[in-house]
Amino acid sequence: MRTGRKWLAAVCAAAIAGTAAAAGPDCFTVVVGSAASATGAVMLAHNEDDRPPQILDLHAVPRLQHEPGELIRLQGGGTVEQVEETAAFVWFELAGQTFADCFLNEHGVTVVSNQCQSRVEDADLTDGGIRYRLRRIVAERAHTALEGVRIAARLVERFGYGDSGRTYTIADPHEAWMLAVTLGRHWVAARIPDDEVAVLANTFTIGEVDLSDPGRFLGSADLVAYARRNGWYDPSRDGAFHFARAYADRSAGVGLHSLPRWWFGVAFLSGTAPGMRNLPFSFRPAHPVRLTDLFALLRSHFEGTQFESLSTYDRGNPHRNAIKRICSESTELGLVAELRSGLPPALGPVAWFAPRRPCVEPFVPVYAGVTAFPDGYAHRPWHQALRDHLGDDPGGYPPDAGHAWWAFAARARRIDAGFARLFPAVRTERDLFQGRVLQARETFEATAIPLAERDPAAGARAVTAFTGEWLERLWNAARAPLPRPVPDGSGRIEPLVRATGQPEPATLEGSR
């Protein structure tokens, strides 16, 4: 399996020199269209990566009524008129963070994001622009992914985006879009075809754009003209307009953080060994994608590829490395939104959640219809979090045995300290738990779905109890002693990609 030799040589040199992954863009996202998934569900997989210190809270925010004239205050001082009623939503909150939170609302609209550096260096912003509140307003108001794109686009055009660039992935039970925004008021959105998948690793991936096809692409009115004025695009030189080539920072997509993760996602899902250049925005997968395929992908450290064999892999654990892994030292949670249509709203959309490190924690189901989480999954109530999110300092909270997050964080540290010895037994324990929860979900839904069809309130109570039970079990497992290490064990995970570059079918629970 070969790739660009000069690029790989530079990567190897940096890694052998012992370069640790520096602070930078680290998130990872995969979207699966409904016709590309094994069950017909739209799926969105995401690892959220952020630098410590962090505190992860789970909130079930109900529908809220708002007073006439109520205003939302933005970070920079601007205001947005609040709507009469906001949707209920599940909120995966990283307290105090501007660009980290993930949302699943009662309509199945899911919002995550990846930092993507643009080449825009200066822009006219109104009231400092919009940043954090963009995603939460989408979660509060959108009934569909497309509506979410339009809500966000209007806000970007009104205030300007207050950071270099970002791609928001917005999905619902019927379709998914990626919305790329740059510093200022320029944006573009692309719909992922139903029979394709898309991989995103902190670099703009939307390529050729045809704004005359609004069913597939949307964008700001002067998107192309602005690029031409700045010399980033010339039709006679460049041919068709390509958003990423025009707007992405020139170093984006070719460094240690982004390109290996993008490449691996394409290789794993496509069944090919793609070159390192011109990776696709979206493509057809080698086989219908299963939920467990996405679990496996979010757990990856590039096993079975040229990126695994570098000397830094053997320095204790695979997480802190010059080449950013998909599951890395900065991963705070893994999330797979399984957005199923045709089921009661409380049960159809479900976010499978793995706290801290997906490679060592099983994914448990968090249904869109939950109305509460177990005590200890948040350090303050949802209404306080809504008010004080950006004012909260995660570094100001000492470890607390009464908060679940600290158990998962401590467990990750203990495993990393002896990864090669501990991981084989940890993996076995994780997979047994994963198998139990997958089977329990099937049994639960056999009765919960007809119950929710007859009585939506009873359905909501049922999913709240079921989600809570498995979150409690997950926390209890994290507090338990680590399994006995294998005396001569190796922490290396079975390859997901063969040496030839052909993806290995997932060997985890539920695979064919």
Strand elements, count: 19
Helix proportion: 25-40%
User: CATH superfamily assignment?
Assistant: Penicillin V Acylase, Chain A
Number of domains: 1
Q: Output the CATH topology.
A: Penicillin V Acylase, Chain A
Structural class: alpha+beta
- From the alpha-carbon coordinates, what is the Rg to the nearest angstrom? 22 Å
If helices are DSSP runs of H or I spanning 4 or more residues, what is the number of helices? 12
Share in β-strands: 15-25%
User: What is the arithmetic mean of pLDDT?
Assistant: 90
What is the molecular shape? globular
Distance between the ends: 26 Å
Please report the first level of CATH classification, the CATH class. Answer: Alpha Beta
CATH architecture: 4-Layer Sandwich
Largest sheet: 8 strands, antiparallel
Descriptive account of the structure:
By secondary structure, this protein is an alpha+beta fold. The protein has one domain (5-386, 400-479): Penicillin V Acylase, Chain A, CATH 3.60.60. It is 30% helix and 19% strand. The chain has twelve helices and 19 strands. The strands form four sheets. The chain has an eight-stranded antiparallel sheet, covered by helices on one side. The longest helix has 36 residues, at 419-454.
